[in-house]
Amino acid sequence: MRLARLDDLSVDRVVGLRESLNLMSEILSEGGVKGNVVVEGSRVKGNVELYWALRRLGARLVPVASSDVKGLFTPLEYLGFYDEVVPDRYRVYGDSEELLYRNWPTPIVGLRSLSGDGFRVWAKLEFYNPFSNSIKDRIGWYMFKRTMEEGWSGPRILYEATSTNTGIALASISAIYGFKAKLFLPATVQRASDVLLKALGAEVVRVPKRITVEFVDDVDREAKKSGSLHLNQFENDANFEVHLRYTAKELDYQLSGAGIRPKAIIGGIGTSGHLSALTFYFKSRTRNAIRIYAVQPKPGDTIPGIRRVESGMKWIHWMDVDGIIDVSRDEALSEMVSLARREGLLVGMSSGAVIAAFKKLVEEGLQDGDYILVFPDHGCKYVEQLSEYLSRKG
Length: 394
Ligand code: PLP
Description:
By secondary structure, the chain is α/β, with parallel strands linked by helices.
């Protein structure tokens, strides 16, 4: 047996994400890989499932041999499993794309104002991503990169339905790669988004609907008519995969490095990409010792970026979350303002919703230990909602 660089191997069969889940879960919970990929030269000839599981998990190396080797176990650490999420020491980047994917992990900060007797709260700050100041940079980059790797020969025009953040991420990536972005926003989203997107060179179309999923099929039809690229964040498995390979793995790397073993992770659901991947990764890695809570707006309320699970999402239905917590728009705004005034951190509305949900868990009674909140974006995009809220509540 030897270790080969995964990128040096060629393979002629694709094993899909859904089919890879069981094996990936086993690898994460065992902390390593049983067996090996069978190769002839650099061609994968057998155990192609293992190759795809390791590729989706972002291992740098793969155990290979010319036949099945019995009784082999290779720990994750030997496979360069964490290499991609180790921070660069000097933080000097060659270009703006590298500034995104080589600057991870995003920071985790302890929040004193939310911590209590016996429990500590940590927030993962996704507004440290450079383009949209949000978690959506990750999917914008990865969905685009994957499509380019597969070979895109259509027009350099990209369509997407977005509530802003994915739009900004894709407008930035489009600017870098010389694409034209045409972005479709629901009527409920703040006006400032149009300006930000246009400044990044995108065309903006407002659709008289409340949430993006109500018109994603129309966007798909429009894109197909002109042969344009529609990455479709709601269906594209690269959304789930980027959060598995980077967001979840870097969080694991950070927490284990800091000696933190979280009792639960709490996050919002929009496409469900990030929370589904965190659920899959941490439930597997901890053998179900962790609890995961999803946050959605209460019926009838809108909170930008998140929506109710029954409005239709892909990956969350593959997972077992421990609870789904309803939060009102005013609760989200109130927690957003309260955090700003106690910790000096102005986070976005969906982050406010995550705090409100966490407080509901505290009211029900919490186990002692550490709790992780995922804050998807920054508060600067929500000036309009904030000014309306502050004029009412002060
Ligand atoms: N919060 C904000 C501000 C968002 O923009 C989004 C997604 O658009 C989310 C939360 C939800 O993230 P996901 O799509 O990974 O479920």
